[in-house]
């Protein structure tokens, strides 16, 4: 299943070439969102209010979609429709009495009749599509039911994968971004920054903002990077939060031990643990008042939906009262660490012990 790369699509857009159907996916979520915006801009310009319809894939009504597809554009050359996070594995949020295959089939039938004046964009930013790597081409091949929709888009329009960039590619992007802000960074240091951020483009952008603010028009050196940037850990902070919520002492201390390997950024470790518990507290409060994942993601401007989903899952094991108590313990730990004169590892181990002793 061949895919078009983002550079090719951007080149097409510069030439004024637009397809009627796009399917955009990949692990590089910021790039997915950026490319989506560029296609929309090419289609409707500044007339999004009149010529763009945004639909949530979890609640997609194919009859409504068909009517939108057939509409004539208003105040622009194209009528544009953006469908975010339609998942062929589970087409609806509530599948009671429905069959996924039937809904997918209706969608395919609807997409067969896209008129020349309409551009339909499917993009995936809130869930992960199961893929495998084709060793011959190096491209990703979709393994789950989303493959049918992706294949259809590839035949009728464009199928675009936005993969995580290599560290060398990111190093060039970082150097260019720093230069655009009047600063300087070597390619070696830019590559090190990419490694420390695990090639996450959103994290890299935030770190560039911080580093440029600190260095100004001077050079961002290796010492500055190592003093200001927290090296991302493969062990997620959700693992520790999940272990505490489940009263799993062994798993909690195993996660803490791995996180504590970063000796130079133990304050950042505490900050990230605290963030995980605040996420769970928000999710628990939202659940109490009948709110959903999408509501929390929108209200608190989360970029990654999986973080909200993890928070909903883990918070279901903890009462709001217990979550408040854990956040209070973390607050006191922060005060203790900032006061100085204590062993950070011992303080954090005591913190985890206290949280494990709290009761629902």
Quickly name the level 1 CATH class of the largest domain: Alpha Beta
Q: How many structural domains can be distinguished in the coordinates?
A: 3
Integer-rounded radius of gyration? 23 Å
Shape label: globular
Helix content: 55-70%
Tell me what the CATH architecture of the largest domain is: 3-Layer(aba) Sandwich
Characterize the biggest β-sheet.
5 strands, parallel
Number of strands: 7
Under CATH, the topology of the largest domain can be stated as: Rossmann fold
Please state the average pLDDT score. 87
In terms of DSSP E residues, the strand content is 5-15%
GO molecular function, one term: DNA binding
Family: Belongs to the DNA polymerase HolA subunit family.
Domain DNA polymerase III delta N-terminal: 22-125
EC number: 2.7.7.7
How does this model look, in words?
This protein is α/β, with parallel strands linked by helices and 360 residues long. It folds into three domains: 6-161, Rossmann fold, CATH 3.40.50; 167-228, Helicase, Ruva Protein, domain 3, CATH 1.10.8.60; 237-357, Zinc Finger, Delta Prime, domain 3, CATH 1.20.272.10. 56% of the residues lie in helices and 9% in strands. The chain has 17 helices and seven strands. α1 (6-14) runs parallel beside α2 (29-44), α11 packs antiparallel against α12 and α13 packs antiparallel against α16. The N and C termini lie far apart (50 Å). Keywords: DNA replication, DNA-directed DNA polymerase, Nucleotidyltransferase, Transferase. It is an enzyme of class 2 (transferase). Its EC number is 2.7.7.7.
């Amino acid at each position: 299943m061949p895919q078009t790369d983002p550079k090719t699509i951007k080149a097409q857009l510069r030439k004024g070439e637009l397809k009627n159907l796009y399917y955009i996916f990949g692990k590089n979520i910021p790039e997915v969102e950026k490319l989506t915006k560029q296609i929309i801009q090419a289609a409707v310009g500044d007339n999004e209010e009149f010529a763009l319809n945004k639909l949530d894939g979890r609640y997609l009504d194919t009859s409504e979609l068909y009517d939108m597809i057939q509409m004539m554009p208003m105040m622009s050359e194209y009528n544009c429709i953006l469908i975010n996070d339609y998942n062929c594995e589970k087409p609806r949020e509530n599948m009671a009495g429905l069959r996924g295959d039937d809904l997918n089939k209706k969608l395919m039938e609807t997409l067969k009749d896209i008129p020349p004046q309409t551009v339909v964009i499917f993009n995936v930013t809130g869930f992960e599509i199961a893929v495998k790597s084709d060793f011959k081409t190096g491209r990703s091949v979709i393994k789950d039911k989303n493959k049918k929709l992706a294949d259809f888009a590839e035949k009728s329009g464009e199928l675009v994968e936005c993969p995580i960039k290599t560290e060398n590619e990111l190093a060039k992007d970082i150097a260019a971004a720093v230069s655009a802000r009047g600063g300087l960074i070597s390619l070696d240091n830019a590559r090190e920054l990419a490694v420390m951020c695990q090639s996450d483009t959103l994290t890299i952008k935030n770190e560039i903002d911080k580093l440029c603010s600190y260095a100004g028009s001077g050079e961002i050196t290796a010492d500055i990077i190592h003093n200001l940037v927290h090296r991302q850990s493969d062990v997620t902070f959700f693992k520790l939060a999940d272990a505490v919520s489940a009263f799993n002492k062994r798993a909690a201390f195993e996660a803490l031990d791995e996180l504590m390997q970063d000796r130079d950024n133990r304050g950042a470790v505490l900050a990230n643990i605290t963030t995980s518990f605040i996420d769970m507290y928000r999710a628990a409060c939202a659940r109490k008042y009948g709110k959903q994942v999408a509501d929390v993601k929108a209200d608190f401007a989360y970029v990654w939906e999986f973080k909200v989903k993890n928070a909903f899952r883990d918070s279901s094991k903890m009462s709001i009262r217990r979550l408040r108590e854990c956040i209070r313990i973390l607050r006191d730990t922060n005060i203790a660490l900032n006061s100085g004169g204590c062993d950070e590892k011992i303080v954090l181990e005591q913190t985890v012990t206290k949280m494990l002793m709290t009761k629902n």
